[in-house]
Amino acid sequence: MDEIKLFEVKEDILSDNDEAARQLRDKLHRDKTFVINLMSSPGAGKTTVLLKTISELKDELKIGVIEADIDSVVDAEKIRNTGIRAVQLRTGGFCHLDASMVKTGLDGMGSESFDLVFVENVGNLVCPAEFDTGAIKNVMILSVPEGDDKPMKYPLMFTKSDVLLINKIDMMELTDFDTKALKQRVTQLNRDMTVIEISAKTGLGIDKWADWIRSAVRDFT
Amino acid sequence: MDEIKLFEVKEDILSDNDEAARQLRDKLHRDKTFVINLMSSPGAGKTTVLLKTISELKDELKIGVIEADIDSVVDAEKIRNTGIRAVQLRTGGFCHLDASMVKTGLDGMGSESFDLVFVENVGNLVCPAEFDTGAIKNVMILSVPEGDDKPMKYPLMFTKSDVLLINKIDMMELTDFDTKALKQRVTQLNRDMTVIEISAKTGLGIDKWADWIRSAVRDFT
C-alpha cells in the first residue's frame, strides 16, 4: 500500500466559508458523494466507530475517509489498514475543519468517485460546530463516560448535528449516565435529531447506524 | 446562599495576553493566592475531581473556584453546594480562557483572600493549551476511556501542563488503556510532568493529588 497522503491545512481567514461550503455541497450533489462530518470530544470513539462502520458497509459502498488532527497520522493509518482510501489533514494547532480544508482532502483522494466519505473532524465539542464543512450531514458522538449533561454545556454542537451516536453504552453500568435525561435535553435543542445508541467496541447498535447511512445515501443519490 | 455570580466574558483581541498573564501572576505572588488552571476534554471529570479535592482540603485551605463554560451554570452550582465560593464565567462560544477572563473571575470573587483558587477551563484539549491564563500551575485531566494515544494528538496540552491526572482508573478493566505506553508518550513531550492516577468517583489516588497541592501551596507561600 502506498504512503498516507498528508496535507498541512491552514485557515484562509479572507475566504467566505459559508459560500465555500455551499459550493462544495453543490459539487457533492453533482458527484453523488455523500459526505458525513463526524464530530466529538477527544476519545469519544470516532475512529473506532469508523472502523466498525467501514467493516459493515465496505462491500456495498465505495468509502473514503478524511482524517483530521492537530498532529500525528495514527488515525489515517488505522483506517488504511482496512483497505479503505484515507488521507490525513494536519491542522497544526487549528481546532476545527472548514470547507476549503475538506475540499483539499477530497481533491487529495484522487480521481476515483466515492459513494460515501467520512470526515473525522478535530476532537472538540466547541469549534467544529461553528464552521460549515460543506458535508451533507453532521454526525456527533457522545460517549457515556462523558456524562449526560453535555447538551447544556455545548448546545451548538447538538443543534448543528443531524445524528447523535451515544457510544460506549457497554460502560453504562459503571456510570450514572441517564439516557432519558440526555434525550430530553437533546430534544429541547434539536427536535429533529436522530439518536442511536451504540458500542463501537462490542458492535451493539452498529447495525442501526449502518441502516441510517444506507437509507440516507439511498435518498441522496 | 446568595446567587451565583455570572460574568459574560469575551476575548479582547487587542490586548497582549502574555503581558496580562505575567501581571496577573505577579499579583497572585503578592497576594499569596495559588491558582491552578484545570484543563481536559469535555466529560473527563474536571468538576468531580474538584468536588473530591475540595472535600479533602477545605478545612486546611481557603479555596475558591472559577468555573468557565460556553453556556450554563451547572458546574458552579455543584461547587457552591459544598459551601465554597464559586463564580461562573460564560464564554459564549469561545473555546478557552485567557488571563483577562481569569482576572474578571478573581475580581468577581470579592475582597476575601484565598489560598487556593481552581480555574476550571472550557472542556477542550486544543485551544486552552495555547493561552496563558496567568495561573501558577497548569493541570490537565485525561480520563481512561479517552484512550492512551492522546499525547500524540494533542501534544501542546501535555507540553504546557505541570501535572497530568489520569482519571477514571476504576474503568481501566473495560478498556485497553495502556498506562505504561501513555507515560512513555508523556515523558517524550514533557519530562517534568507529574503523573497521578486517580478515580474521582471512588476517591482512589485523591490523597496523592491533595498531597501534591499541599506541597505546592507550601512552596509557593
Characterization of the model:
Chain A has about 220 residues and is of the alpha/beta class. The first copy, chain A, has one domain: Rossmann fold. The first copy, chain A, is built from 8 helices and 8 strands; from the N terminus they run E-H-E-H-E-H-E-H-E-E-H-H-E-H-E-H. Chain A has helices at about 15-30, 45-55, 75-80, 100-110, 150-155, 155-160, 180-190, 205-220, and strands spanning about 5-10, 35-40, 65-70, 85-90, 115-120, 135-145, 165, 195. In chain A, helix 2 crosses helix 8 (about 205-220). The two termini of chain A are about 30 Å apart. In chain A, about 50% of the residues are buried. At the A-B interface, helix 5 of A face helix 5 of B.
Number of helices of chain A: 8
Question: Which two protein chains have the largest interface (Cβ within 8 Å of the partner's Cβ), and how many residues from each?
Answer: A-B, 33 and 33 residues
Biggest sheet: strand arrangement of chain A:
1-4-3-5-2-6-7-8
Q: Write the CATH homologous superfamily of chain A.
A: P-loop containing nucleotide triphosphate hydrolases
Low-pLDDT sequence parts of chain A: none
The backbone outline of chain A, from C-alpha atoms, is: globular
Instruction: Label the CATH architecture of chain A.
Output: 3-Layer(aba) Sandwich
DSSP strand (E) fraction of chain A?
15-25%
Radius of gyration of chain A: 16 Å
CATH topology-level name of chain A: Rossmann fold
The ordered string of helix (H) and strand (E) elements of chain A is EHEHEHEHEEHHEHEH
**SS-derived structural category of chain A:** alpha/beta
Q: Mean pLDDT across all residues of chain A, rounded?
A: 92
Summarize the main sheet of chain A: 8 strands, parallel
- Topology, number of strands of chain A: 8
How many domains, in number, for the residues of chain A? 1
The oligomeric state is homodimer
User: Into which percent range does the helicity of residues of chain A fall?
Assistant: 25-40%
How far apart the termini of chain A lie comes to 30 Å
